[in-house]
Write a structure and sequence with these properties.
There is one protein chain. By secondary structure, this protein is mainly beta. The chain folds into two domains: 11-232, Oxidoreductase, molybdopterin-binding domain (Sulfite Oxidase, Chain A, domain 2); 239-360, Immunoglobulin-like (Sandwich). It is built from five helices and 22 strands. The strands form five sheets. It has a six-stranded mixed beta sheet, with no helix packed on it. Strand 17 and strand 18 form a beta hairpin.
Length: 362
């Protein structure tokens, strides 16, 4: 069970929580997350798209605008890449005071193998103008947020868009994209939080000035008040998660475990380079190193394991990650108005006894 209150959930937030979904923590055992267990956040409605009539337009500050069918994109050179995606609001419900929005705990994550064609050669084929500065990605999803009607659009700096690993993806885990994951085409930006991976892609527009769309200029910014411009949310902060050991109590998700040797295991990731260290703490004791597996790719999580001797009683287990850039999960959350990037260590409560269910009765 994650410690925290997350009190006062509204019916609107409950509706969001029912519509979107997180990764069940036991699914961390899968190196690649089955598509149905991968976290999902959909801002507006899922568009119904007919692939036969769908087109991707590439224009703006280019010399040769392009319009491509899905078939033409699939005929281009393509690659498959394992990528960990995480929602920028992951951990929001654990903040105090709690920002009102999708009430994520810490499971808004998943790792899948995305297949598509690299974006950079397409932009180069279109011929970038000398003043090209950003690339805007427009989805087919449209709605209203904070009173503003808009298409879901995000931009990337040109240098980010030209990274060789940025993909226009039409498949996930070897299967065509399902509707909820962006069929027929989505953007995949390895290392960045999920808001950058625009789904149901319909247009790519090269611009000479900074893009000021609502999802770019207002949403996804670290700020303390509505009046602040704030800092943009970009790359994924380091995080480790463990598979909660033992058996769950249905309502509280408290874990029940018999005494003895217990193998703790999980996954860890970061958008700032590979995770180089995972540590485990028991009952707020010292952080002790876990053993690491090889990562699935430069942009995907890596497995870890830690042998714990479970003694009778109630215990709190924590885990944290440190990446190659030296970023480490902080003990205290950095509160912000919209609840982004809360990557404080996961906490799991465990009751250990020969018959641990008896501890629930006391």
């Amino acid at each position: 069970m994650e410690a925290g209150t997350a009190s006062g959930i509204t019916l609107d937030e409950l509706g969001l929580a029912a519509r979107n979904h997180a990764l069940p923590l036991e699914a961390l055992r899968h190196p690649l997350t089955p598509v149905g267990l991968h976290y999902l956040l959909i801002h507006f409605d899922i568009p119904v798209v007919a692939a036969a009539s769908w087109r991707l337009a590439i224009g703006g500050r280019v010399e040769r605008p392009l319009e491509l069918t899905l078939e033409q994109l699939q005929a281009r050179p393509h690659r498959s890449l394992a990528v960990t995606l995480e929602c920028a609001g992951n951990g929001r419900a654990l903040l105090e005071p709690r920002p009102a929005s999708q009430p994520w705990l810490s499971e808004a994550v998943g790792t899948a193998e995305w297949t598509g064609t690299p974006l950079a050669p397409l932009l180069q084929e279109a011929g970038l103008a000398d003043d090209a500065a950003e690339v805007v990605f427009t989805g087919l999803d449209r709605g209203v947020q904070h009173g503003v009607m808009h298409d879901y659009e995000r931009s990337l700096p040109l240098a980010e868009a030209l990274r060789e690993e940025v993909l226009l993806a039409w498949a996930v885990n070897g299967e065509p994209l399902p509707p909820q994951h962006g069929y027929p085409l989505r953007l995949v930006v390895p290392g960045w939080y999920g808001m950058a991976h625009v789904k149901w892609l319909r247009a790519i527009t090269v611009v000479a000035e900074p893009f000021h769309g609502w999802q770019q200029e207002v949403a996804y910014r670290i700020r303390q008040t509505e009046e602040e411009a704030g800092e943009p949310v970009t790359r994924i902060q380091p995080r480790a998660l463990m598979v909660p050991p033992g058996l769950p109590e249905f309502y509280t998700r408290t874990r029940l475990l018999e005494p003895g040797s217990c193998l703790l295991e999980g996954r860890a990731w970061s958008g700032y380079g590979p995770v180089e260290r995972v540590e485990v703490s028991v009952d707020r004791g010292p952080w002790r190193p876990a053993e690491l597996d090889e990562p699935l790719s430069d942009f995907a999580w890596r497995g870890w394991r830690f042998e714990w001797r479970a003694e009778p009683g109630e215990h709190e287990l924590r885990c944290r990650a440190t990446d190659a850039a030296g970023n480490v999960q902080p003990d205290e959350a950095r509160w912000n108005l919209d609840g982004y990037c809360n990557n404080t260590p996961q906490r799991v409560c465990v009751l250990v006894d020969e018959r641990p269910e008896r501890l629930l009765e006391s």
